[in-house]
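Problem statement: downstream parser choked on a complex file, so we are re-checking the raw output for the zinc ion run. The parser issue turned out to be on our end (a line-ending mismatch), but while we're here, posting the original submission so the record is complete.
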Amino acid sequence: MNIEVKTSQETELVDITGSVKEVVSGAGVEDGLCVICTHHTTTGIIVNENEARLKEDILSMLDKIVPKGAGYQHDQIDHNAHSHLKAILLGSSATIPIKSGSLALGTWQSVFLVELDGPRNRTVHVSVR
Ligand code: ZN
């Protein structure tokens, strides 16, 4: 099942927990695994706390580690090497257990699509087994 996400910023964290939970509850799996995977090379999937200042901290951390336009080879092609490199640091998927038919997330855990080269229309695949 795919989740379609329309992002609105160049970089942002989009909480997709509710959409992932809908897929899981529709799947009818009692105990299993949910794999959430982005289809794009300039987005990441992370699990963390949905707190406004933390979300800003995550984006500024990525800017510090991978500054824009720092002489990357790929920028000679389409000027978004920093977006790809940030995506590599975050990873393209998350795996979350399913217990008693529900996502086994901790109290403060949410699933985010991290937009790193937006705004764009994005597709996230959710697989439940
Ligand atoms: Zn590129």
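For whoever reads this later: The CA atoms of residues 22 and 102 lie 10 Å apart.
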